[in-house]
């Protein structure tokens, strides 16, 4: 199975002579369906797996000034006078045995400093803290955090920082805390023995998991410690930032880590306050649901159904019940400033002249704001990532759910017609046609907002109309496909030829389904591919009559092979030598063509036919 690779930078687009752009989602091991736009009706869910990279070994020498808020000196002085601080510091620095010996002293030390920091916060800053109690640090090394949204990762953080609760958290028979749910984890500490490896890679993995489980936490701090030193790790949509090894004697820097949990520096957003979790009234510490604000509405009782890579686009998808209507599918992601087009804007453009058949519809989409005037955005100094959210309302089934080959082929026919209309009439090229983004047996929403769109005037002839031999009433005309996810979409006519050419020169898509030219970053250079194709098969008399009735004789003749054509194309002259053909191909610059998406539909069908259960 494909796995999205983590990146320490925000850059995600690549010219044709560089490796393929990583897709926005990947199917998890053991999962059977993925969709970054609309989940299929099978109720299955997806989680992108963690894959550590070399970024775990990099450090930022300016970390303490750039990524932490300095703790006021008077707070540090008060903390150092607490009875639990200096003795525990000495115990940690002198530890020679197993890492388990560190858990208690570290938890007590950090809890003491955290309590002092919280108590010293002025009223205006304390009001921004999501709890009326301080963060406490608890030994949790024997059990996993609970209620991960999808599956159950086998992670057991050594120490978890969580806001204190009135009756305290549950302990096991040895007095070690257990059962802290993911949605209550505020920070994590990974401890290693004096001769062990650094724990920053493991801490980063835990941060990755917590941020998947907590869509309200775009930024997250964690700590890696050894008797000799500690390191602070900051995780965000731009990847990881890691401090240098720092001596325990530099207590001001340790206090800065704690202080930043309450008062992060500018641009280091720890919370998205437009999303909040809620536990059952009768089950504190139980599995949460989510309340999401979007477009002036509040969607309650939402559940997470897709968890993306927190260090890339961080696509997260919720399904929220809406009384009397199909559920709202709330998708959010971080849009990189090096990407020109935004999915919500492309959908608005696609449906601007009426509901585009077979394409998912949105009732709202925009940037998420952390206050009235500012968008929730992160930057690495080169690229800015801005959080965007859209509300989608149509649903469908994965292609493997096809009840017959005919149903699958009719879905493929409609998706090609929808794709052709989307490009020709609305100038939008999808660029990621795949098993994940083509659904069948769609359930079209009756939301008033989408009904108000009306019918698209240049509606293509869909397969049911072709087979019926006559047009269908616009109110009853429905596509058999549901095309979703314009994350990688682009305008083919944007008014600026240079911009269009540059954008279409980037390679993107899901590797298993991309066209051969996209994989290679160039047009095919093998002369055999241009001259040895088989002719298009002729339609039967009945099929020809139905096709002509729907599309006209001119279109039939345009795509019907004649003398010297193959699939409607004209190969190079037979007088050219193979090396001449190859040289001509080399001179043609790469850009994403319409037919590359059509080839991706072929590979999608090929994949489905290998997987589908008879």
Give a structural overview.
By secondary structure, the chain is an alpha+beta fold. Helices cover about 30% and strands about 15% of the residues. The protein has helices spanning about 65, 75-80, 85-95, 100-120, 125, 200-215, 250-260, 345-350, 405-425, 450, 465-470, 495-505, 515-520, 525-530, 540-550, 555-560, 580-585, 595-610, and strands at about 45, 135-140, 160-165, 185-190, 220-225, 230-235, 240, 275-280, 290-295, 295-305, 315-320, 330-335, 360-365, 375-380, 385-390, 395, 430, 440-445, 480-485, 490. The strands form four sheets. Strands 1, 8, 9, 10, 11, 12, 13, 14 and 15 form a nine-stranded mixed sheet that branches. Strand 5 (about 220-225) and strand 6 (about 230-235) form a beta hairpin. The relative contact order is 0.12. The model is unreliable at about 1-45 (pLDDT under 50).
Strand content: 15-25%
Residue-averaged pLDDT, rounded? 86
Helix content: 25-40%
What is the gyration radius calculated from CA atoms?
28 Å
Summary tags:
alpha+beta; disordered N terminus; elongated; 614 residues
What's this, in brief?
By secondary structure, this protein is an alpha+beta fold.
List the helices and strands and how they pair.
Layout: E1 46-47, H1 63-66, H2 73-80, H3 86-94, H4 100-120, H5 123-126, E2 135-139, E3 159-163, E4 187-191, H6 200-213, E5 220-225, E6 230-236, E7 239-242, H7 251-262, E8 275-278, E9 289-294, E10 297-307, E11 316-320, E12 328-336, H8 343-350, E13 362-367, E14 377-379, E15 384-392, E16 395-397, H9 405-426, E17 428-429, E18 438-443, H10 448-451, H11 463-468, E19 481-483, E20 490-491, H12 497-504, H13 516-520, H14 527-531, H15 541-551, H16 553-559, H17 578-587, H18 594-611
């Amino acid at each position: 199975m494909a796995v999205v690779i983590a990146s320490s930078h925000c850059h995600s687009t690549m010219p044709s002579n560089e490796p393929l752009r990583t897709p926005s989602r990947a199917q998890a091991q053991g999962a059977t369906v993925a969709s970054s736009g609309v989940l299929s009706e099978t109720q299955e869910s997806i989680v992108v797996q963690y894959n550590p990279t070399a970024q775990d070994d990099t450090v930022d020498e300016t970390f303490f000034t750039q990524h932490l808020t300095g703790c006021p000196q008077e707070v540090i002085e008060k903390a150092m006078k607490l009875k639990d601080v200096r003795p525990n510091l000495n115990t940690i620095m002198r530890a020679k045995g197993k890492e388990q010996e560190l858990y208690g002293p570290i938890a007590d030390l950090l809890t003491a400093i955290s309590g002092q920091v919280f108590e010293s916060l002025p009223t205006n800053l304390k009001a921004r803290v999501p709890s009326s109690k301080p963060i406490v640090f608890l030994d949790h090394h024997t059990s996993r955090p609970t209620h991960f949204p999808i599956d159950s990762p086998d992670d057991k953080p050594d120490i978890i920082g969580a806001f204190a609760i009135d009756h305290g958290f549950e302990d096991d028979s040895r007095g070690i805390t257990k059962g802290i749910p993911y949605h209550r984890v505020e920070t994590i500490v990974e401890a290693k023995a004096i001769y062990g490896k650094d724990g920053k890679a493991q801490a980063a993995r835990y941060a990755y998991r917590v941020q998947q489980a907590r869509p309200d936490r775009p930024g997250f701090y964690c700590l890696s410690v050894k008797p000799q030193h500690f390191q602070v790790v900051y995780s965000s949509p731009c990847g990881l930032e890691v401090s240098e090894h720092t001596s325990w004697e530099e207590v001001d820097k340790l206090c800065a880590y704690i202080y930043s949990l309450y008062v992060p520096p500018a641009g280091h957003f720890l919370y998205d306050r437009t999303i909040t979790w809620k536990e059952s009234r009768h089950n504190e510490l139980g599995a949460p649901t989510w309340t999401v604000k979007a477009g002036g509405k509040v969607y309650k009782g939402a559940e997470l159904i897709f968890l993306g890579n927190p260090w890339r686009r961080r696509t997260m998808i919720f399904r929220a019940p809406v009384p009397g209507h199909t559920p709202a599918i709330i998708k959010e992601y971080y849009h990189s400033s090096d990407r020109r087009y935004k999915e919500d804007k492309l959908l608005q453009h696609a449906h601007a002249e009426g509901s585009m058949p077979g394409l998912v519809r949105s009732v709202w989409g925009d940037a998420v704001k952390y206050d009235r005037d500012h968008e929730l955005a992160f930057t690495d100094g080169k690229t800015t990532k801005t959080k965007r959210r859209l509300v989608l309302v149509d649903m469908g089934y994965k292609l493997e759910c096809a009840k017959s080959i005919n149903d699958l082929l009719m879905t493929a026919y409609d998706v090609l017609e929808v794709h052709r209309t989307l490009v020709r009439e609305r100038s939008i090229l999808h660029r990621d046609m795949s098993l994940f983004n083509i659904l069948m047996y769609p359930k079209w929403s009756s939301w008033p907002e989408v009904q108000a769109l009306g019918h698209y005037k240049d509606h293509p002839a869909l397969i049911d109309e072709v087979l019926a031999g006559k047009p269908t009433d616009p109110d009853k005309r429905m596509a058999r496909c549901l095309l979703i996810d314009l994350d990688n979409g682009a305008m083919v006519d944007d008014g600026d030829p240079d911009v269009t050419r540059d954008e279409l020169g980037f390679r993107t898509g899901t590797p298993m389904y991309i066209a051969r030219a996209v994989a290679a970053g160039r047009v095919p250079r093998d002369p055999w591919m241009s001259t040895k194709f088989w002719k298009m098969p002729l339609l039967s008399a009945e099929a020809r009559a139905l096709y002509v009735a729907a599309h006209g004789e001119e279109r039939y003749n345009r795509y019907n092979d004649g003398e010297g054509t193959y699939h409607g194309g004209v190969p190079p002259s037979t007088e050219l030598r193979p090396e001449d053909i190859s040289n001509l191909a080399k001179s043609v610059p790469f850009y994403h063509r319409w037919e590359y998406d059509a080839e991706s539909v072929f590979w999608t069908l090929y994949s489905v036919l290998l997987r589908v259960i008879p």
